[in-house]
Amino acid sequence: MATDTQELLKKVRKIEIKTRGLSNQLFSGEYHSAFKGRGMAFSEVREYQPGDEIRTIDWNVTARFNHPYVKVFNEERELTVMLLMDVSGSGNFGTIKQQKLELATELCAVLAFSAIQNQDKVGVIFFSDRVEKFIPPKKGRSHILMIIRELIDFKPENTLTDLAVALRYLTGVIKKKCTAFVISDFMSPQFEAELKIANKKHDVIALRLYDKHEEDFPDLGLIPMRDAETGEVKWINTGSRLVRNDYKKAAEYRNQLLSETFSRSGVDFTSIGTHETYVKPLMTLFKKRGGKK
């Protein structure tokens, strides 16, 4: 058992070193501008200077000193960040560099470190077709390390996926507006209505994880394929170009529907493959959001 714990701590440390470095070097500035605070908080008063807005004048202080003073406001930075992590069976699919669950773990860690560097709280909802675990939002490095430990070591009870359940839970349990990252392959029954409701209350961002071979299958002859969520095994003739084309078309259609769902719900999203680094898709998403007025 002690060896297991040591192995786990080694993995946590490895992920911390990699993701903390990335969030320091790359993401903290982009994250700050992409996810702004809820409003402006009063900071101090100072003497009026030409160009200051009349509406910022503090009339009480001005009357007291017989000289115009203005109120200075700072951005109210602190946010709550929720990570909705899909831990269903299909997360175990990965044919090139890593499985989707490994990719999701690193993504969660990078987002969590970026959040705490900006003094934001971080919480997690693990979900399959039910909410498997809820970690309430808190600040601090020890909290993030506990989250990473859970991400690596978590064993879900169920293997199916139902995003609607997780989104309903988010809407019900987090009372104040938060920034919520949903990290999943989004292979789930209908969830659009719940996504729209969640995004009205919160700021929802979708990070879709995929494996290239779920979308474009190579010619491997007749092979058994097991559905990671249901356990069902089917024999597929990947040697047939017709079968491969049908497979590709079905994936393209699924992705198109998903893209339309996000668009109708007003949700920003990006797709990240198990074969690639997540740095570029995340940076592009952050910059796009940071550029929005």
Keywords:
single chain; alpha/beta; Rossmann fold; six-stranded mixed sheet; two-stranded antiparallel ribbon
What would you note in describing this structure?
With 293 residues, the chain is of the alpha/beta class. The chain has 2 domains: 2-34 and 78-291, von Willebrand factor, type A domain (Rossmann fold, 3-Layer(aba) Sandwich); 39-76, no CATH class. 46% of the residues lie in helices and 24% in strands. It has helices spanning 2-34, 59-65, 100-117, 141-153, 163-173, 192-201, 212-215, 241-265, 279-291, and strands spanning 39-47, 69-76, 80-86, 121-127, 131-138, 179-184, 203-210, 222-226, 233-237, 268-273. It has a 6-stranded mixed sheet, sandwiched between helices. Strands 1-2 form a two-stranded antiparallel ribbon. The chain has a two-stranded antiparallel ribbon with strand order 8-9. Strand 8 and strand 9 form a beta hairpin. The longest helix has 33 residues, at 2-34. It is elongated and about 90 Å long. The model has no long low-confidence stretch (mean pLDDT 83).
- The radius of gyration over CA amounts to 23 Å
| Strand order, sheet with most strands | 5-4-3-6-7-10
At the first level of CATH, the class of the largest domain is: Alpha Beta
Fourth CATH level, the homologous superfamily of the largest domain: von Willebrand factor, type A domain
Ranges where pLDDT stays below 50 over 5 or more residues in a row are none
DSSP E strands, number: 10
Helical fraction equals 40-55%
Hey, roughly how much beta strand do the residues contain? 15-25%
Give the overall average pLDDT: 83
Structural class estimated from helices and strands: alpha/beta
Give the distance, in angstroms, between the N- and C-terminal Cα atoms: 52 Å
Q: What global shape is seen? A: elongated
Largest sheet: 6 strands, mixed
What's the CATH architecture name of the largest domain?
Answer: 3-Layer(aba) Sandwich
* Number of helical stretches of at least 4 residues: 9
